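Researcher: Next sequence.
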Amino acid sequence: MATNLPVPAPAPRTDPLAGGGEMGALMRSIDWSKTAVGPVEGWPQSLRTALSILLETGFPMYIAWGPEFTQFYNDGFRPILGSTKHPAAMGLSTRVTFAEIWDIIGPMFQGVMEGKTTTLVDFLLPLDRHGFVEECYFIFSYSPIREEGGSVGGVFVTVTETTERVLGARRLKTLQELAARTQKAATAEAACEAAAGVLRENPDDLPFGLVYLFDAGGKGATLAGAAGLEPGGPASPARIDLEAADPLWPLADVLRTGETRVLEELPAAAGPLPAQRVAVVPIAQPGEERPAGALIAAISPRLIFDEKYRGFFALAAGQIATAVSNARALAEAKARAEALAELDRAKTAFFSNVSHELRTPLTLPSGCSSWSTRSSISPASRPAASRPPTSRPTSRC
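Model: Next structure:
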């Protein structure tokens, strides 16, 4: 006799948006029926599982689901969106949120939908996430999320931003090159020109840079190196009068205060330039009474001018200051050595003359010479009438 066993009730479907911190709360506040993915109740298990992984981890993760690439992201991913993309990005299409880079990532997303995985390291993605297009770098992997039938339902993104590391390595290389290529400069001007040559090789951090040296009297500044601009142009005059009523650059302020000045607007007289902001940084070593000069460093329009960026400019100016100080010290030492050598030559010539005189008899005066000649005849051999009295010589020296 057959026994009718009870049929177990289907397990209740858990909420795929449970947990997840702030982004989980944001997801639960959205009416998903008004989005391309439809109501939560109709979501496939593959999407639910992927979302549970995304919300349970602190590692930055992102999902773009369906043909519209509807976006889900967790707390770890949130900083990547900056100040302008969040919170509107949640539930929106990737095509809309990342329109500025869709020409780059769009083909990658399409490849994932065809089953192809993409992985890139320190890849440049110029994001508009703070009101300007920013230079950003990432390590990321795009992987397919397969639905129950085997087809690809969406893109699963794991990502780490490496912008800070990439910029740090680039700036460190510039500082190392500054140290290496300026250390043998024979003059302050040569040190500045060598430094400008290094700065030309990093236009991403320094769209243009000008190195000015102050006069000894503090009344003027002379251009000693230029990067990104032609010397002698409207923005890079060969000489700047520090006592002028309306100077092109605030070099006099930097000379007086020894502090960095940041210009948010550039002078109209400078003409069109590849950057809209500059930092005027003193070229000075610790303990010096006044700067030796100033570095006019352009701020990249594609980077945030944060403390690390400021620090890079300060370190670059400090390296130039060290090179200028060393070159001047070398020149002073060389001048002292030449002065000592000249003194040695003069002493040698003097003593050589004295030695010559000591070795060679002095020439007697003509009167003494004639008397000496006459005195060489013996009085006994002279005639008596011609003998001079012994008490009164005929000639006296």
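Model: The chain has two domains: 21-161, 166-332. Residues 233 and 393 are 91 Å apart (CA to CA).
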